[in-house]
Write a structure and sequence with these properties.
Radius of gyration: 19 Å
CATH topology of the largest domain: Rossmann fold
Largest sheet: 6 strands, parallel
Oligomer: single chain
Number of strands: 11
CATH architecture of the largest domain: 3-Layer(aba) Sandwich
Shape: globular
Helix content: 25-40%
Length: about 300
């Protein structure tokens, strides 16, 4: 068996095209363009790249955006005051604080200070809680993108055994909830594994669907999965590669070349889940502008 490849770039472009058309229709009715405010604290190189990718995507779909660059010495009180002003600014539809934050700032406190109606990342406790009880909310972008991939490729989830490796609040935990809930096109039986899980293979070998977000390159080997499994690799890791001009290459948490010989469907890295994350952020920002989740 050789797996069908799940093309995240293609599906992400379809999502973005849909958002692009919806934005223009929204504006044509006399509404202002959706506006996403990005907040960048410090000068972490990776964060600068990520915020650049997001602002470029906004421009591509017709969403206005601005990046507020703050010194990494900013106090928690000062940062919360900035966010409070953005919360009260009716011209701002979505607020995105780029993670990670400097070590003296609590990401949880900062996230909680964002108005949940503008939390387009889907990280606020209000949105997390509403997700858990199957109510309308802003869904965390990466797991929401995975669900969109299942939908596009008509990959059945209902009544399947889905195993999620990684229990982060950004990917693993909300992914497990979405997979199991009625209104998120899930309805799967879900197991979530983490760093304290004993005998990871005992769980992965029984999975119909395996979603890996552990941050460990090539963690999942072919002997850990069964024939016909659906594999979603959320991990993106940089490893040394002397043949690359950059001196490194990007790989996932799954041993892709080996595992794809047993899988029925698999995402590549890069080009699988990553593009979907940004596309779903665009979708959330439009929903925030239209007040589709939280009407006035």
């Amino acid at each position: 068996m050789s797996a069908e490849i799940i093309d995240g770039k293609k599906v992400a472009e379809l999502v973005r095209q849909s958002v692009r058309e919806d934005v223009e229709q929204w504006v044509s009715k006399g509404n202002r363009r959706p506006f996403l405010q990005v907040v960048l604290v410090g000068d972490d190189p990776a964060s600068i790249v990520y915020t650049g990718t997001k602002t470029k995507a906004c421009q591509d779909v017709g969403i206005e955006t601005n990046t507020l660059e703050l010194q990494d010495t900013i106090s928690a009180k000062e940062l919360k005051e900035v966010i409070r002003d953005l919360n009260n600014d009716d011209s701002v539809d979505g607020i995105l604080v780029q993670m990670p934050l400097p070590s003296h700032l609590s990401q949880y406190d900062v996230i909680e200070s964002i108005d949940h109606r503008k939390d387009v990342d889907g990280f606020h406790p209000m949105n997390v809680g509403r997700l858990s009880v199957d109510q309308p909310c802003f869904r965390s972008c990466t797991p929401a993108g995975v669900m969109e991939l299942f939908k596009y490729y008509s990959i059945p989830v209902k009544s399947k055994h889905a195993v999620v490796v990684g229990a982060s609040n950004i990917v693993g935990s909300p992914m497990a909830v979405m997979l199991s809930r009625e209104n998120s096109a899930g309805k799967a039986t879900t197991t979530i594994c983490h760093k304290y899980t004993r005998d990871l293979t005992a769980h992965t070998i029984n999975a119909d669907i395996l979603i890996v977000a552990a941050g460990q390159p090539h963690l999942i080997k072919p002997e850990m999965v069964k024939e016909g499994i659906v594999v979603i690799d959320v991990g993106i890791n940089r490893i040394a590669d002397e043949t690359s001009p950059k001196g490194y290459k990007l790989v996932g948490d799954v041993d892709y070349e080996a595992v794809k010989k047993k899988a029925s469907w698999i995402t590549p890295v890069p080009g699988g889940v990553g593009p979907m994350t940004v596309a779903m952020l665009m979708k959330n920002t439009l929903l925030a502008a239209k007040k589709s989740i939280y009407p006035d």
